[in-house]
Amino acid sequence: MIVDELPNSSVRERLVKLPPLAYGPLTLPSRYLLSPLAGYTNLPFRRIVREIGGVGLGTTDLVNARGLLEGKGKTLHLVETCPEDRPFAVQIFGSEPIVMRDAAQLLEGRGVDSIDINMGCPVQRITKGGAGASMMCRVDSTVELVRTVVESVRIPVTVKMRLGWDSTQLTAPKFAREFEQVGVAAVAIHGRTREQGFSGLVDREGIRKVVEAVEKIPVIGNGDIRSIADGERMFAETGCHGISMGRGALANPWIFRQFVEWETTGQYSPPGHFEDRLALLMRQFGYLEQQRGTERAIVSFRKMAHWYLKAMCVKAHLRNLMQSARTRSEFEAAVREIAESGPTRGTRTGVLPDLVIPVPSGPVENW
Ligand SMILES: Cc1cc2nc3c(=O)[nH]c(=O)nc-3n(C[C@H](O)[C@H](O)[C@H](O)COP(=O)(O)O)c2cc1C
Fold this sequence. Notes:
The chain has 367 residues and is α/β, with parallel strands linked by helices. It has 2 domains: 8-265, TIM Barrel; 274-341, Non-ribosomal Peptide Synthetase Peptidyl Carrier Protein, Chain A (Orthogonal Bundle), CATH 1.10.1200. The protein has 17 helices and 10 strands. The chain has helices at 8-17, 43-52, 65-69, 73-78, 97-109, 124-127, 139-152, 172-181, 204-213, 228-238, 247-251, 255-265, 274-292, 294-300, 302-311, 316-323, 328-341, and strands spanning 22-23, 26-27, 32-34, 58-64, 88-93, 114-119, 157-164, 186-193, 219-222, 242-245. The structure holds flavin mononucleotide. The site of flavin mononucleotide has 21 residues, from strand 4 and helix 11. Residues 35-38, 61-62, 91, 118, 120-121, 160, 190, 222-225, 245-248, 359 line the site of flavin mononucleotide.
């Protein structure tokens, strides 16, 4: 696919003329997708971003294919869904073709809309077993694994990968071409290498090379998109067909709706204010409580609450109060105090300062 770099003003015009984003026969409601963030993009979070609107596809955290086949409780929690959580993809990881095939078939049997294969995870626990980003170091066996999965199911199979293992092995364009040949429906590219982890800048030129390497499957650009301007730049400089957001969605769950508004009208409404965010926090917590019971929900909601409360500019001692809650009544008391106190900056119903969510730091070797 030849890509002409577009001035930002023409990006919308190009998008409006493009056919809707589709993974094979599955047409997605928008070209703005939720990128998996292990520990965050669970069912309760997917439900609230879908309720706000604009989400083209929601994907689970990475799911161990073997754990799924063994019916492990934790793994099964990850693939829980509900009728509102559509279209819905499960991301699987593993290095054994037969295990990946069986997991894909199991998921198809459960009514999942699409399967995503993880080829981007840099964490040693995953790569040392030959899965995640390490698959980008082995062309033949990786393409065979992907072919096995594609041929075993009728639903679309996609791959999410990085630009390559390191700057000397930028293998994403080659893989994308090969994957298209074996029937992959789309590829998503996080514009960094495994060696980079999350450091440095996203290489949009590298993503563009992937777009140029394929004939017709859509390419999803990913990495550091936190605003409409960031997304516009990704479309303009790479020629990608869709974009996916992880941390940007955590900081601003309204981002998908903003993109759809921008694409259709050129204008977009501000993200939710303090009051909106507090209501969203409560709703998301309620969904988690339904799924896991109150006690577990309180503990497992802490990491999510951390970002909610940061985004809401809540005073440190009140953030701590919520983080130390152990019962429903302590949790509710913390919410009441937070509601009464309001944000430290701005107003309850005004636009809050943008929150930039940092990434895991330190050398990837240690993860
Ligand atoms: C805490 C965290 C967990 C992640 N978990 C996954 C995962 O399970 N599967 C995956 O493909 N990528 C995962 N990623 C990578 C993101 O999907 C995404 O590619 C990356 O964060 C860059 O996009 P962003 O800047 O929009 O967040 C994770 C990233 C972070 C920070």
